[in-house]
Amino acid sequence: MTVKIDVLVVLGAGGDLTSRLLLPGLGQLLASGQADGLTLIGVGQDALSDDEWRERVTRSFESGAAEGAEPSRVAAQTAWLTADVTDAEGLRSVIAAVDGTPAFYFALPPAVAVAVVKTMAEIGVPEGTVLALEKPFGTDLASAQAFNALLARVVPENSVHRVDHFLGKSTVLNLIGLRFANRFFEQSWNRDAIERVDIVFDENLALEGRAGYYDHAGALVDMIQSHLLQVLALVAMEPPSTLDPDDLRGSIAQVLRAVRPQDDDPRRSSRRARYTPGTIGGRRLPSYADEKGVDPENGTETLAEMTVTVDNWRWAGVPFTLRSGKALADRRKEIVVTFREVPHLPEGLSGRVGPSRLRLVLGPDRIEFDVAMNGEDDPFQLDQVTLSAEFGAGRLGPYGEVLSGILSSDPTLSLRADVVEQCWRIVEPVLAVWRNGDVPLEEYPAGSAGPAAWSAVPPKA
Ligand SMILES: NC(=O)C1=CN([C@@H]2O[C@H](COP(=O)(O)OP(=O)(O)OC[C@H]3O[C@@H](n4cnc5c(N)ncnc54)[C@H](OP(=O)(O)O)[C@@H]3O)[C@@H](O)[C@H]2O)C=CC1
Ligand SMILES: O=C1O[C@H](COP(=O)(O)O)[C@@H](O)[C@H](O)[C@H]1O
């Protein structure tokens, strides 16, 4: 059943996520005409005036280039409530201010979010309420299961939106069209034709003042447990019959259930490292261990790599390498599908040029297909050429897409309870061997390409 959301209540609205990502996305959505009539309420512990809050909302909408009558109306009418929403009285006062069906967006520290849901379970929420939760969703499998059970006491599963903004990225969504609307890809999308898949998200951003969160999460949990496994699921899933939430999320869950560390050996299928001093684009960075708020004893990695297999008929034996890290030289964000060499090259053609590779680049969105062709000068000598196409950035940014689903109470792009649990199940064996010290914590200078000889395919030259 689709419920129209009348009021978006942002809990923790004074924080970084709200101003930098959520409100710019909301502004875009309002400007696109897809959330007409919405009321916005900001809630936090700071005693802000309505005018101060309206000023913040206006600035954030501007940063998302959101203009037009609806963004202006919402920014002019929005209200700020000061409350501790873990407290029953505080939460009651917020619920009392809601006129219509609310979506509560938890832009709160994770432990506070759990406390608020406990309070909701005690005092109840209005009919039709939707809850939108940010990552990290739990800190391990057991805590994610407990949180899911708690949420189920408050609202039905389809009213819980576990946000993964990667599912709002246009290239990630394009995967669905590319795979299932082109017969020639889907026919060869399997172990017979594909040798390996690499999903790489290397950032040149460093810690950026987020030690409080990141030093307890690290690259594996921050990026692989959450986002990159979702990308893997879209690359590897079976074709859903429709894109409705049950079918799409069912296909995602099914494929994730088949994922495990390569050879069931978490020690040999994972690597970790952290950055030492270096320079990126003229910016001098200290070693991670010396960043403000970091406890070097935590042994947190800033670069993680994990190779998994998908143990089913389609993918048996094909390695999927997931890698993500911070403070790296190149912003390399791509899905690389490497095809097998042809079984026989006709005699008379010379110069093998390497395998065909499909690269889906995540921002600026682009698709590249490296294929072997007859050379220009000598038609019997092979050359590798790249067929490429740029995608538009998409009508909405990732948070605009995510909010569009939440405000139309369509959970298609949000993570189902069992999917989040599967993602924890997949990374837990690796976290365990890392905790035991069975995998060395390597080092790389900030601004480098990371330790040499790791397994992900090299970037395009
Ligand atoms: N920032 C980012 O880039 C991303 C963040 N996330 C996730 O989003 C969530 C929020 O992150 P972020 O915005 O960075 O965190 P911040 O710490 O910047 O903001 C959290 C806000 O919650 C408020 N708050 C804390 N406790 C309460 C309470 N009991 N009642 C009401 N308000 C409260 C805080 O106010 P006060 O300080 O006054 O207590 C603060 O304004 C986290 O789960 C994070 O993991 C996910 C992806 C990216
Ligand atoms: O969730 C997160 O994602 C960002 C990367 O996503 P982007 O869309 O901003 O490129 C990452 O930097 C951050 O560490 C992580 O928490």
Short description:
By secondary structure, the chain is α/β, with parallel strands linked by helices. It has helices at residues 16-31, 50-63, 69-77, 88-96, 110-123, 141-152, 170-180, 183-187, 211-236, 245-257, 398-407, 417-435; strands at 7-11, 39-44, 79-82, 102-106, 130-133, 160-163, 194-202, 259-261, 270-276, 278-280, 283-285, 303-310, 320-325, 332-339, 357-361, 366-374, 382-390, 414-415, 441-445.
Description:
- Strands 7, 8, 9, 12, 13, 14, 15, 16, 17 and 19 form a ten-stranded mixed beta sheet that branches. This protein has a seven-stranded mixed beta sheet with strand order 3-2-1-4-5-6-18.
- The chain has helices at 16-31, 50-63, 69-77, 88-96, 110-123, 141-152, 170-180, 183-187, 211-236, 245-257, 398-407, 417-435; strands spanning 7-11, 39-44, 79-82, 102-106, 130-133, 160-163, 194-202, 259-261, 270-276, 278-280, 283-285, 303-310, 320-325, 332-339, 357-361, 366-374, 382-390, 414-415, 441-445.
- It folds into two domains: 7-134, NAD(P)-binding Rossmann-like Domain (Rossmann fold, 3-Layer(aba) Sandwich); 167-394 and 416-445, 2-Layer Sandwich (Dihydrodipicolinate Reductase, domain 2), CATH 3.30.360.10.
- The protein is α/β, with parallel strands linked by helices and 461 residues long.
- Helix 1 packs across helix 2, helix 9 packs across helix 12 and helix 10 runs parallel beside helix 12.
- The longest helix is centred in the middle third of the chain and has 26 residues, at 211-236.
- The model has no long low-confidence stretch (mean pLDDT 94).
- The site of NADPH dihydro-nicotinamide-adenine-dinucleotide phosphate (NDP) has 23 residues, from helix 1, strand 2 and helix 5.
- NADPH dihydro-nicotinamide-adenine-dinucleotide phosphate is lined by residues 11-12, 14-18, 43-46, 84-86, 107-110, 112, 134-136, 213.
- Pathway: Carbohydrate degradation; pentose phosphate pathway; D-ribulose 5-phosphate from D-glucose 6-phosphate (oxidative stage): step 1/3.
- Residues 178-455 form the Glucose-6-phosphate dehydrogenase C-terminal domain.
- Substrate binds at residues 165, 169, 203, 222, 326.
